[in-house]
Amino acid sequence: MAINNDANHADLDPLWQDADWAIGQSLIMGWDGTAVTPQIRSLIEEHHLGSIILTAKNLKSAHQTAKLVQELQTIAKNAGHPYPLLIALDQENGGVNSLFDEDYVCQFPSAMGVAATGHPELAYEVTKATASEISACGVNLMLGPVLDVLNNARYQPLGVRATGDDPQEVSQYCLSALKGIKDAGMASCGKHFPSYGNLDFLGSNLDVPIITQTLEELNLSALIPFRNAIASGRLDAMFVGGCGISNPSMNVSHACLSDQVVDDLLRNELGFKGVAISECLEMEALSHELGVQNGVCMAMEAGCDLILLCRAYDVQLEALKGLKLGVENGIITRNRLLTSVRRVLHLKSICTSWSKALHPPGVSLLSQLHPSHLALSRRAYDDSITVIRDKEKLLPLSASLHPSEELLLLTPLVKPLPASSLTKSLLESKANGRAARPTNHDTWAHRDRDRGSIMSGEGVFREFGKELARSRNGKLLHTSYTANGVRPVHENLINRASCIVIVTADANRNLYQAGFTKHVDMMCSMLRSRGQKKQLIVAAVSSPYDFAMDKLIGTYICTFDFTETAMHALVRALVGDITPSGSLPGTLRKSKKVLKARQHWLVEEYTPGRDGAGLEDLLRAVHRASAPDLSFLKATTAGTFALHNYNIAEAHYVVRNSSTQALYGFVATYFVSGTGMIGALVVDPTKRNVSIGRSLLRRAIKKLKQKQGIKKIQLGMSFPGVFLGIPCDGGVNTTKEWFGNGGWDTSFSRRLTSMIISDLGNWTVPEGLLQRIQRANISFDLIHGLDNAESVLNHVRAHANPELLELYRAALTEKTNCGIVRAKDSSGMLLGTIIICRQRSPLAQHIPPLVSRSDDIGGLLAPIAPPSSLSTLALQGLALMGVRQIKSGKASSMVLSWAVDETCEPLQAMGFDILQSFEEISNSPDYFPDA
């Protein structure tokens, strides 16, 4: 079956005009079994399947994996495939690894475990090591990193697979992980778009989990890491989930089948140009509701480039038939199909070649990498162990428990993790294959098929207990507990032991564990009241949220998975071989009042020669970690803050690393006409919540209070116009709360809003505006230079902040690029003024929203129209005159910085859109007695 040629794809090899070949390239499939089956061979040879997904069911060892991949690629080469197969694998670490080989493949902590270390650079090292290992086995597409934000962290099955619940922190770690994958020579696939971080599970296999957040709510949190990953240019593919979306702005039954999600949101709004991969369309909810044939056509129409069908051969054949029917019926156009082919071929060109595909280095390379990766694994796990509370100082056990005293270990019954020697040995003992290793795809998609997962009882934690006994060189009692609660055997052992360690694994979703732990805690309290020594330590070995907020549990330690490697690290922490240094990622880390949050940092004066390059690096780091509406930070440079104005005293301060010259924080202060101003306060995103900002703020206020004649201290500044105040984020303003906690009275503020007309060429004058201005007898003129500007300067001096007087003076001095529009009433009285700043004006370097490398941007700055019966009309007239002037200069867009409080509304009525809002706050110096 041929596809008619399309001008957009004339450069493609004629092979892809054959619809069968093009369809094969648009599918990614897998199978069960550790050897090539006739079915998967047929899919590659006869149906031209171009991409394979491998799961734990396919892989026995590193050597077998390399041989299997080599065989698959050889089949493809011999079948005439012009490009090698994409070979995809889940290898997220923690509990989600498809490939396990204790001799050659290292185990590393989960994404949340890595984040618990507090070191984003570790995410780079770990992910690069992981990608290097699976790349050595012939895999070229890594299904990761997980970009989800756990908006409802305690109850979501995604758990430790995600970094945490803070979108900026998730972005930092995921960007580091993406660089690690890229530097290992592999392609990456972010997941799970648009978010699996807050799903509403309805319970049945036939029910799809639902996202209930609105698009606005998703934009404020869940989409931030996806947006930042795409903007980095390192994300090659995106896994689009099968969840539903139900909110007033979008009602979608399956995200990966919706053009609103894939084409509109992912591609058009977020700008993703890579390969979109659908959720597995074998999911029961989809097949019952739509049927696989309809599903694959909908996925392709929605914008997916690779459609996933995990392992059922009959379903895979049905999917192939469905796509062919879609092409024949005209539902899938040739342009749509070839667009996906082009994207997939581009992905293959950057991550594989026939020389690489047919000769994976396998164990020869892995044996060289293994020693350094083992050392990295141990360091990562040791640094991830987190003690959330230790009220009674029970840790380490060597300090609180004598070797002669008995230690009791109570552990739950759990499934072994795929990446474990226990699973491997159990699988080998089940040669008939009835007990299958669970796959790593989201369990809700295939829940029915995973019910045969092996239950190993005490086996998972048996070795942990033995090692703990050996390490403390003392007696240890060990038994398991179940949903049957505290039994007589538990009571007898608790009575014997001086210390009890209870292990929990996702107690929030396995509620019997929470109930059992609280019961034992109550028993220990009662026995202590009778004079018996009954220490209790709770160790969460999966989700750290089991008892994170329950302060009745006095000693609480967390790992982030229960692989053998994690359990070894937990033993070292319990007996004192290491001092745990991890902390809970995300908002809990931010909110915890730890000792380090009261640190005092050395604050030094900013020196341009020494600190200029460091400030540029700091500003770039802050921009990368900021919300999209702070995009103007991209144009902010060290020079932005240097006004060199005779009337404005400026003094800037830094916290820096004197060894590396890196800046950890920067604050800009200015003083003019009795007002001290903080123009910016920025802290390295990786160094927040350790009091750097507090130290800078304290020094800034202290310096400003020393100024003779100071009357007020203002947070936010319009010249330079970087931060006009505290950025408003549309929800709970944590930045405002931070300043409030730092001594500022934030009750009273004024809102300053930067506005924009993005398409100036198509902007038209609102109907009737000119007539209303004429009827009011308002006139306008444009002035340049200081010679005839006294009335303007008096007007600004009387009605605006003192720094704006200097902004107007600077604008009047720039006769070529700037001017002032005046509005007057019929008697000649001044009603208002506004600055016009043409593109490429030297003044623009101090107003970052006016700077663009790609567009010609004009600016209207500091409209000042004091309240009167004509003030709204005067303001609109000033904006209108300014727009006309800027349009005549051929600018493509224009920014108005800024509108005060309610003046925003009449400007919106003229076609201005809100770019960013700030809250300017002023306090008396007396508010800060300790500074």
Automatic annotation (TrEMBL):
Keywords: Glycoprotein, Glycosidase, Hydrolase
Species of origin: Emericellopsis cladophorae
All copies of domain Glycoside hydrolase family 3 N-terminal, residue ranges: 37-347
Sample GO molecular function, one term: acyltransferase activity, transferring groups other than amino-acyl groups
Basic and acidic residues bias locations: 439-449
Pfam families reported for this sequence: Acetyltransf_1, Glyco_hydro_3
Official protein name in the record: Beta-hexosaminidase-like protein
TM stretches of this protein: none
Domain N-acetyltransferase, residue spans: 649-715
Domain of life: Eukaryota
